[in-house]
Amino acid sequence: MADTPLPCPGQDPSVADLLAVRPALSMHAMDGLVLEDVPLNAIADALGTPTWVMSAGTLRARYRRLANAFKVTGRPVSIHFAVKANDHLAVLRVLAAEGAGADVVSGGELRRAMAAGIPAAKIVFSGVGKTAEEMRLALRAGILQINVESAEELELLSATAQAEGLEAAVALRINPDVDAGTHAKITTGLANNKFGIPYNRAVELYARAAELPGIRPVGLAMHIGSQIVRMQPYRTAYARLAELVHAIRARGLVVEALDCGGGLGISYRDETEGAPEALAAAIHAELGGLGTRLAIEPGRWLAGPAGVLLSTVILRKRGYDGMPPFLVLDAAMNDLMRPSLYDAWHGILPLAAQTAAAPVETVHVVGPVCESGDTFGHDRTLPHMEAGARVALLDCGAYGMVMSSTYNDRPLAAQVMVDGNRWAVIRPRQPVEELWAADHVPQWVDKALTPAGGGL
Ligand SMILES: Cc1ncc(COP(=O)(O)O)c(C=O)c1O
Ligand SMILES: N[C@@H](CCCC[NH3+])C(=O)O
Question: Where does substrate bind (predicted)?
Answer without folding.
Answer: 300, 338, 342, 371, 399
